[in-house]
Amino acid sequence: MSTSELNQEQYDAVFHRGGPLLVLAGAGSGKTRVITERIAALVERDVPEDAITAVTFTNKAAREMRERLQGRLGDTSKRLRICTFHSLGLAIVREHAELAGRKANVSIFAGSEQKSAMKSVLAEMQLAADADQVDRVLSRISQLKSGLIEEHDNQLSEIREHYDELLMRMNAVDFDDLMVLPIKILNEDAHARALWQARARHFLVDEYQDSSRLQYDWVRMLVPADGNLTVVGDDDQSIYGWRGAEVKNLFMLERDYPSLKVIRLEENYRSTGSILTASNSLIAKNTERMGKTLRSNLGDGKPVRVWECPNPEEEARRVAGDIKARFATTQDAKWEHFCVLYRASYQARSVEIAMREAKIPYHVSGGLSFFDRAEIQDLLAYLRLLANGDDDLAFMRAIARPRRGIGAKALGDLGDFAMANSCSLLESCSHDDLVHQRAVNLREFGDLMVGLEFQFRHCEPDEAFDAVLDMTHLEAAIRAEADTEELAEMRMGNLMELRRWWIKHTENGGNLAEFLQHIFLLADKSDDDPSEQVRLMTVHGAKGLEFDQVYVIGTEDGIFPHKNAVEENRMEEERRLMYVAMTRARFHLTLSYARVRQRFGQKEKSAPSLFLHEPDQSVMRWVDKNPECEEAKEEAEDHMAAMRRMLGIED
User: Is 31 among the catalytic positions?
Assistant: First the structure.
């Protein structure tokens, strides 16, 4: 890359001669280019590769940085230390293992290994050690190690002590140890500290706004106040406070590094002027920020559309219809150019159904598809068994949810009986010749299914559906197993979505078998190319990505901003999250809200989010408030053009 391709601010950051540097990089301002070019410039200035350490927060980001430098520097890049914080922590622990009470071949415990270790500790301490308790304690221990909670709980401290001792005996560490132990080593051993300070003579940190207090302590140990520290970050995109990120780490740099030079990257290469004007004016309402104003090099572009929809189902159908119309009328359009964003993953369910009905290929990023969720699969197992008593796979899932005191031995014997008598598992349950110690439970299940079949033959569709949830005790099990009322309502909300779809299907004369066939045909996405799909994702999952056309749904008070954020005075982070959502869009941004939404089984009126009113209204177009406006007409024309194209009618 030639230096002529850098703007002035990027050039100043890349060729900063020495001392601490903060590159305040706005969304779409080319921060990855700057940090990789700065590393390349250091190498070309004959800084030894072993004196350069660059860290970021994900393996994907580290890999991208290394690949760019490979193209820029060739094989020289292989000698550079480019890694995540955790990878660097592991290198320090392995090299100085004895200082951490370990051997060099230390193991890393994650997932199942952590759970097994914690289960052993809890059992040894004669405490509850079921799966839910193990998960809860591990989460609390992680918060304790990361400094997110104080050590006031004596029992938790004792559990941590036993857990740490077990890991030490097994020569293992967990992911939190990869943050905690390096700080201990660097703090307590002058030789180790001097060695790693030399290796970090030029220390670069990407996505610095995502750093935790522990990581900031680590940076301070490695780089003295006048050292060659380069951090690249954006206070306006600090959205991970819930997992320990502290935006104040950016502000503390000026205190701890008095000679800090700050360079702002404000030229945006991603979004149009209207999108940036709306985003800038929104984020300007935050007080905890260093301040910058992004400017676009793509021109003004179209205003930001705001939609008012009667309910989430209509909102989803409108989004799907608009995507289909724009796909049909936009030159060189691809499905992956479109993205639907939401504050919480449960909001995807209505969008998924609308996408399937509109035959739009889509991919749910960072979460389960609506149809893959356990509660949906559980209920569908009962419906499948009612529609087809020979479906033994459906039988096996249904009889296990909820638990009925029927174990593997009983089911194995039932299977043998069914095979010997050439009948289905369900039919076997009611067979007079079935003799087993659990035969009563099995016969009760058979009677249950007979009763439900009667409901579907003779009752109204909604009554039959509700009978499945009630008579099987599935609803009670879902509510009992959920850790919070909110989680229980989210899972029940998924089932209510399926209920609404079932009722709509019966209104058109469809029966249960046809309904299930329709679902499974829609659910079959095996032939889709993952790279050619509309993306559905949470705003947290979209950080760092960009799309030509973005739809942010559910922009209502209580949803976005989330009611918990309002109650806990976390509005600034919530506003940063909205800023991230808006700045994912390149050319078209649509924000939508529903007038009525189902909450805790009740329909409630919704108010449009204050985040719709805070941006500069000169670039916002409330389409439904003014049906004569240009955007409303354009939307109607797009739909008509799409219909003509699909019907083969020439313009």
Answer: yes
